[in-house]
């Protein structure tokens, strides 16, 4: 079985991911988590392109997710999270290089 298929099988369902308390409804939170999970492979590729090292890229991606969850209240409801997460990832990378 290809590696990518194995990763897909291990992806947690939205119900398994921790919910961060915010003013949003539980339904909004679940929808956002599902959307974040959908764009993870693109974010992983972006991180690898920036870092040029798989281990550093995974660390960057993890730090990005932590920052995103900590700042979930800044996410504009009704928009796709991909560009927001991409910006967090890029800024996190740039901050580590300063």
Rg calc: 14 Å
Helix content: 55-70%
Enumerate how many helices there are, as a single number.
5
Report the average pLDDT across residues: 79
**SSE order, one letter for each helix or strand:** HHHHH
Poorly predicted tracts of residues: 1-23
Strand content: under 5%
**Main pleated-sheet profile:** none
Characterise this structure.
It is a single chain. With 98 residues, this protein is mainly alpha-helical. It is 67% helix and 0% strand. It has five helices and no strands. It has helices spanning 3-10, 26-38, 40-51, 54-70, 81-96. It is elongated. Mean pLDDT is 79; it is low at 1-23.
What's the short story on this structure?
The protein is mostly helical. The chain is 67% helix and 0% strand.
């Amino acid at each position: 079985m290809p590696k990518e298929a194995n990763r897909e099988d291990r992806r947690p369902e939205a119900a398994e991911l921790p919910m961060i308390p915010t003013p949003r409804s539980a339904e909004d939170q679940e929808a956002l988590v599902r959307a974040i999970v959908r764009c993870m492979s693109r974010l992983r590729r972006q991180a690898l392109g920036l870092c040029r090292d798989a281990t550093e890229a995974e660390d960057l991606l993890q730090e990005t997710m932590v920052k995103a969850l900590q700042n979930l209240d800044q996410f504009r409801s009704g928009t796709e999270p991909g560009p927001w997460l991409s910006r967090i990832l890029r800024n996190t990378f740039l901050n580590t290089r300063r």
